């Protein structure tokens, strides 16, 4: 990536939409201590752990920082599994095609090819590192199917604890090298902002470590490069499947630093999240798509199935299709949920295949072998993020990103089920290879950060529930010009109050990050006047050929967000669904 012209042509903001103004940094005291490394890795999910482990094989000193403890990233919560063409009867080409269909015409094909072609080998490497996937009697990996996949290609572990098993195996490997003075791990570390040198190259981060030994308060990590693998932004909404640590800290600090962001408007809402009643907030229990992959199906509050009539893949249609169908059916029936029917699968099978989900449901008084399970869509995944190239490089020199914090172009307008763990795995390897080569070639020489003296901001934690409510009502699963304008006005109101009230600290910084990302996401959602994938506009219900491309945004030096539009090369379009949904599937010619 050379400059912003790589990201498309400048997009003129329509009259009536005001671009948000964002500060350059958060209000925080100056760093009181410094840690140094060749590379700093931020985040301890599959992307961060993989990057740290691969870098340490060939780099002298790696610093890994994580917000809580090593095992509490989003990877830990991944139930369904990891997608890869492991079956001899499957192929990367078939996985490629399914990914393009789910991405509704906006996937970057080169990125998808890297994912599906390198994925099987990377999954086998996980096995060599000690990951224990579920196997059949002959010792082969059990594979299941999830929404949008045309073949059984989802490897899983512990029934429905795949993320926890992968995280366990990677952490075990990391702990095995922690006695090596060449790698340092700092837990309970919240990244605050990026550090840059006089030429604008990223060379570190400021971070806050809470009461850990001699390191506490605000400090700085200095390095030749930074790899960001800090996860998503789920807590920007009132209800999400994301853990409480998912406050978008990495995305927000990149946004403030002027990194190009891509596809922020494409937020995936998982169709089957346990409905806990009106007013439920925070992290909600996820009912994995793999349950439908094993034969469960959706019914409305009258007990009627509705997906088979709406899509050829029925209950296993891509997530955006199922979520939209559920929202429509809820409106038709006047209900705030639908049901997942698992009863015919039987108690023994459910317990053996989905022990974690069964236990979670029983905690809420539901026996899935006897009872219908109430579900409704909730925020699940951010398909957009910090824009990267095929090597994980961002628009800011010295800064890399992978995992949910990034926008590689793999997911397009809607992530295909179980491609997230694979993306983190594949692109972490690519980043490590690229960084090692550049460091060996003498690139990214040690440099010194300049002082942070730009415009600063802080939003008190008391604003958080109001920000989340505004995002949920106006920038949520279904949006319109009016709802988005109302959300933008409400967020601007909180931004105007923010500098006069807040005291710096972790809760303040998290809330400010949510505010800044909410403003940017809402701005992009107002610009995209169509319905595509995870982006549903009730006032623009159809897909528009003119919007078949990526919407990029960046904070300009004066603090204003600017936008660029990059069309995606034309692919063949095949109409495959009935007139009720007019669902289009896009393939390579």
Record the SSE blueprint.
Layout: E1 9-10, E2 25-26, E3 34-36, E4 39-42, H1 46-56, E5 62-65, E6 82-83, H2 92-102, H3 109-128, E7 143-144, E8 154-155, H4 162-177, E9 183-186, E10 189-196, E11 202-212, E12 215-222, E13 225-228, E14 239-240, H5 249-257, E15 261-262, E16 267-274, E17 282-283, H6 289-293, E18 297-299, H7 319-333, E19 338-341, H8 347-353, H9 355-363, E20 373-382, E21 385-387, E22 399-401, E23 406-407, H10 419-440, E24 456-457, H11 464-474, H12 481-501, H13 506-527, E25 549-555, E26 561-567, E27 572-575, E28 584-587
Parallel strand pairs: 2-24, 3-12, 4-5, 4-13, 5-9, 13-22, 14-17, 21-23
Antiparallel strand pairs: 1-26, 6-8, 7-8, 10-11, 11-12, 15-21, 15-25, 16-20, 18-19, 19-20, 25-26, 27-28
Helix pairs in contact: 1-4, 1-10, 2-3, 3-10, 5-13, 11-12, 11-13, 12-13
Structure description:
It is a single chain. It contains 13 helices and 28 strands. It is α/β, with parallel strands linked by helices and 589 residues long. The chain starts with 8 loop residues before the first strand and ends with a strand.
CATH A-level architecture of the domain at 272-378: Alpha-Beta Complex
Q: How many DSSP-defined strands? A: 28
Distance between the termini: 28 Å
Q: What kind of sheet is the major sheet?
A: 6 strands, mixed
Estimate percent helicity. Answer: 25-40%
Order of strands across the main sheet: 1-26-25-15-21-23
The CATH class designation of the domain at 272-378 is Alpha Beta
């Amino acid at each position: 990536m050379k400059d912003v012209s790589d990201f498309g042509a400048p997009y003129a903001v329509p009259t009536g939409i005001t671009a948000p103004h964002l500060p350059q940094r958060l209000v925080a005291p100056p760093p009181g201590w410094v840690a140094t490394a060749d590379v700093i890795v931020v985040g301890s999910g599959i992307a961060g752990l993989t990057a740290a482990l691969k870098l340490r094989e060939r780099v002298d000193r790696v610093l890994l920082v994580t917000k809580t403890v090593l095992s509490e990233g989003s990877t830990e919560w991944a139930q369904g599994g990891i997608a890869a063409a492991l079956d001899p009867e499957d192929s990367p080409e078939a996985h490629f095609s399914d990914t393009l269909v789910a991405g509704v015409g906006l996937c970057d094909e080169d990125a998808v090819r890297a994912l599906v072609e390198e994925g099987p080998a990377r999954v086998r490497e996980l096995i060599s590192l000690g990951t224990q996937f579920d196997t059949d009697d002959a010792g082969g990996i059990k594979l299941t199917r999830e929404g949008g996949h045309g073949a059984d290609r989802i490897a899983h572990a512990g029934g429905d604890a795949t993320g926890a098993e992968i995280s366990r195996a990677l952490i075990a490997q990391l702990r095995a090298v922690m006695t090596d003075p060449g790698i340092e791990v700092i837990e309970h570390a919240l990244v605050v902002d990026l550090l840059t040198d006089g030429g604008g190259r990223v060379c570190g981060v400021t971070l806050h470590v809470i009461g850990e030994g001699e390191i506490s308060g605000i400090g700085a990590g200095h390095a030749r490069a930074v790899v960001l693998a800090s996860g998503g932004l789920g807590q920007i909404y009132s209800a999400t499947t994301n853990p409480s640590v998912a406050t978008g800290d990495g995305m927000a600090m990149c946004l403030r630093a002027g990194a190009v962001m891509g596809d922020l408007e494409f937020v995936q809402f998982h169709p089957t999240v346990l409905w806990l009643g009106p007013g439920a907030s925070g992290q909600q229990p996820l009912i994995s798509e793999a349950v439908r992959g094993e034969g469960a199906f959706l019914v409305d509050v009258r007990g009627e199935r509705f997906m088979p009539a709406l899509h050829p893949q029925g209950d296993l249609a891509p997530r955006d299709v199922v979520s939209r169908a559920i929202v429509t059916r809820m409106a038709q029936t006047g209900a705030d949920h639908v049901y997942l029917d698992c009863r015919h699968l039987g108690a023994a099978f459910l317990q053996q295949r989905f022990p974690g989900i069964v236990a979670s449901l029983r905690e809420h008084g539901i026996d899935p072998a006897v009872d219908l399970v109430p579900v409704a869509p909730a925020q699940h995944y951010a398909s957009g993020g910090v824009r990267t190239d095929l090597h994980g490089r961002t628009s800011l020199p010295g800064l890399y990103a992978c995992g949910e914090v990034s926008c590689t172009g793999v997911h397009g307008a809607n992530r295909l089920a179980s491609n997230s763990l694979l993306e983190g795995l594949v692109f972490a390897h690519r980043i490590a290879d690229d960084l090692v080569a550049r460091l060996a070639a003498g690139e990214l020489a040690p440099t010194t950060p300049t002082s942070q003296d730009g415009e600063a901001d802080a939003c008190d934690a008391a604003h958080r529930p109001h920000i989340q409510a505004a995002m949920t009502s106006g920038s949520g699963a279904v949006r319109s010009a009016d709802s988005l304008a109302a959300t933008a006005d409400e967020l601007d109101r909180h931004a105007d109050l923010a500098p006069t009230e807040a005291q710096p600290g972790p809760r303040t910084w998290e809330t400010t990050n949510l505010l800044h990302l909410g403003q940017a996401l809402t701005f992009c959602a107002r610009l995209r006047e169509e319905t595509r994938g995870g982006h549903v506009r009730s006032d623009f219900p159809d897909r528009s050929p003119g919007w078949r491309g990526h919407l990029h945004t960046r904070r300009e030096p004066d603090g204003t967000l600017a936008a660029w539009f990059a069309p995606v090369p034309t692919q063949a379009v095949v109409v495959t669904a009935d007139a009720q949904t007019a669902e289009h599937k896009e393939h390579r010619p």
